[in-house]
Specification:
The complex is a heterodimer of chains A (112) and B (115).
Chain A lengths: L4 E3 L2 E4 L5 E6 L6 E7 L6 E7 L2 E5 L6 E5 L5 E5 L8 E8 L7 E2 L3 E5 L1
Parallel strand pairs in A: 2-11
Antiparallel strand pairs in A: 1-3, 3-8, 4-5, 4-9, 5-6, 7-8, 9-10, 9-11
Chain B lengths: L2 E3 L4 E5 L4 E3 L2 E3 L5 E8 L6 E7 L7 E2 L2 E6 L4 E6 L8 E9 L6 E3 L3 E6 L1
Parallel strand pairs in B: 2-12
Antiparallel strand pairs in B: 1-4, 3-9, 5-6, 5-10, 7-8, 8-9, 10-11, 10-12
Classes of the chains: A mainly beta (112), B mainly beta (115).
Chain lengths: 112, 115
């Protein structure tokens, strides 16, 4: 079965650089979520989109922005990167009111 | 705001035995969902089991079952016949359909399975 695809798997950036993370949800899933998991931490909700509109916003820094495109894929744009942004970034998707979230394998971002 | 608490940072179990991971949550809502996710060393997030709050019957998925106590706001995970592949970080998670449907995770419990 198709899963949530995230790219890249690993990304190394320097401070103050910009990064773009991509997420391709499971086909026919209309809702996408982004989570950030710092080292040894539980995942923290950043932002979500339903039918290409932002549906919820969590602890996402102003330096970050995201959108969902017409093909339902989503991109998380991160600017002015800081060392503290180093984390595993998960995308998850779902397709219905009470369906569970399905997570991608994550993008590991390292900021040096 | 909803909170999820896992009071056991680490647990261990002998292979083939049973272990129970604890989770409590705090909410004022009546309609919500609870989940257990497993995160092995590969760092994937894998859904283990889910429970709808309106269902009184405890969810079961093969060797995994939950003890859902709504009044006590408790949602423990029981793993029977533990296998080496069960070793992972386990996260309890809460989701309300009335507040954006985001998942709120507990701090996680690191499960070690001893051969």
């Amino acid at each position: 079965a198709a899963g949530v695809i995230q790219s890249p798997r690993h990304l190394i950036k320097e401070k103050r650089e910009t990064a773009t993370l991509k997420c391709y949800p499971i086909p026919r899933h209309d809702t996408v979520y982004w989570y950030q998991q710092g080292p040894g931490q539980d995942p923290q909700f950043l932002i979500s989109f339903y039918e290409k509109m932002q549906s919820d916003k969590g602890s996402i820094p102003d330096r970050f922005s995201a959108q969902q495109f017409s093909d339902y894929h989503s991109e998380l744009n991160m600017s002015s990167l800081e060392l503290g942004d180093s984390a595993l970034y998960f995308c998850a998707s779902r397709n219905a009111y009470n369906s569970p979230l399905h997570f991608g394998n994550g993008t590991r971002l390292t900021v040096t | 705001a909803q909170t999820v608490t896992q009071s056991q940072p680490e647990m261990s179990v002998q292979e083939a035995e049973t272990v129970t991971l604890s989770c409590t949550y705090d909410t004022s809502e009546s309609d919500y969902y609870l989940f257990w996710y497993k995160q092995p060393p590969s760092r994937q997030m894998i859904l283990v089991i889910r429970q709808e709050a309106y269902k009184q019957q405890n969810a079961t998925e093969n060797r995994f079952s939950v003890n859902f106590q709504k009044a006590a706001k408790s949602f423990s995970l029981k793993i029977s016949d533990s296998q080496l592949g069960d070793a992972a970080m386990y996260f309890c998670a809460y989701r309300s359909e009335t507040s954006g449907s985001r998942l709120t995770f507990g701090e996680g419990t690191q499960l070690t399975v001893n051969p």
